[in-house]
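Hey L., structure's done. Input below.
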Amino acid sequence: MFPPQKAPPPMKIHTTSLQFLSALCLAGAAQAQITFSIDRLGPVIATPSTCPGAPITGADILTPSSGLPCQASSAVVAPLPVPSIVIPGGPGGLGIATAAGCTGAPPGNNCPSEVDALSYGLDQIMTATGLTLPVSSIFFSVDEFAQGIPGSPFPPNVFSEGFLTGVNDAAADVFRNTIPMPLLPLGPGAPATAGNKGVIDGDANPSGSGAVYAGVGLREPRLPMFGPGPRTGDNIDALDIGKLPINTAGAIGPVYFSLDAAFPDVLRGIPNTNTALANGFLPGAVLVQNGGGAPVVYAMPMQLGLDLGGPATDDLDALALQENGLPGFQPINAGGVFGDRIIFSVRRGSAVIGMPDSLFGMPICEGDLLTVPTAPGLPPSMFIAAEWLGLNTFRVTPGVVSDELDALDIEVPMAPPGQPFCSGDGTLPTPCPCGNIGNPGAGCNNSAGTGGATLTATGSTTPDTVVLTSSGELATSTSIFLQATGVLPNGVVFGDGVRCINGGLRRLYVKNAVAGVVSAPVGAEPSITARSAALGDVLLPGMTRYYQVQYRDSAPFCTAANFNASSGFVITW
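Output:
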């Protein structure tokens, strides 16, 4: 089976400033663990994975090669080697029988080895605050033919990164929603402010639009092409952001997914891979793997309102699932509260496209987020129309082939586990030693001119899943995560920065930054409470501790010291 994993949750933030929220949500998605699959047409296919070295196929679940070997990791703002395989598609992984025979098949192959959708059953669909899915809770990917909506706010977005602008990077990128959405079915008629914003890039290189954000080790651009053969870039085909479940055997599981259909893709001019039928399943079914052997069916197409035109006429293309923990699939309709909440999209060429959804009676498009029908035997009901996500449809632009949403994850942000303090932005009585004032909320500026390092935290204190992240350091700075029992309200000069923590100092972790960002604990590293206890400071409920990061900055810049300090963060355990 695939190896045990320790997964920090995605960044959780609250703020009243939409602009500030956008920046922090982008960082949070990048810092969370990311797993995904790619289609069989891109150049990374058949390339030896960074870990364990096996050639990559369209059935493998991948992760950025930015952390521990073969462990789920995060995107970084730096070019990466090709991804690692965190769950193999064949034996010992998803158990897809045809996957092993497709190992090494070159880009552009039509071998039956392609995963279309992915979820771990932990999507936070019904845990929204105030019955609203907030900004940056819906993450999705599109393919190389997606247009987006011209004039969409908050670039980079599907339009700015897509083929209409000639950038052609959208297929390997991940985008998120930009406006809060009521936790109610949302049909066509989205407000003008609706749209999407890029949060994860394929290769982390500047795109043709000038955008730069954290990447996952894929290749870009991907030009829209017709006919057989390899493509110029990669396409994210399934996605999950955040924590991975660990089953009783100590392995990742359960894993929910779907497999590719056989019918043709009218824009690519080629048939799909027929992975589902080649393995004895329907492409509209949701499968589950949780313990080895072959996967089993979790939800049948008819339960989802699919295959009304006959077996294998629909292909489930993206998946978000909030599993209720009971055996089997207990479907609920769009207005339900209990049971298993499932959200999905369908692939271009599915027979259900154009049929009226069973809630609004609106024609279904490839970019719509759908859920189970309002009654058995009817098409799916609409959960969120594509227009709310800034995607183009034939409902908006008659005659076009609608944008296809082909990967999905839903994660609702939560409040951080503490509060920031000790900023070197001029708000402390003790000024930065050389007038090197940092950006708002950051520590004092450094020799790289990043505006200073900012310390943030994600996760919860009970159980302890807290992850500290310092961003805005020098590219590869050695960084020391410090914990203290007390605070200096006015601060004191500390190297090229200001320190506000004092008393009972503990050096929790010593790590090097990657592209100016460093997080702890990650992977197999001990939790903060475990590390603190090992250093003689047992953290009991109600205790408060103060945190800063001391990082190396040896360039001649300010004082004779060779270090600086991040802003601070306080946590009550």
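The two ends are 35 Å apart (CA to CA). The helical segments are 18-31, 158-161, 275-278, 528-534.

-- N.
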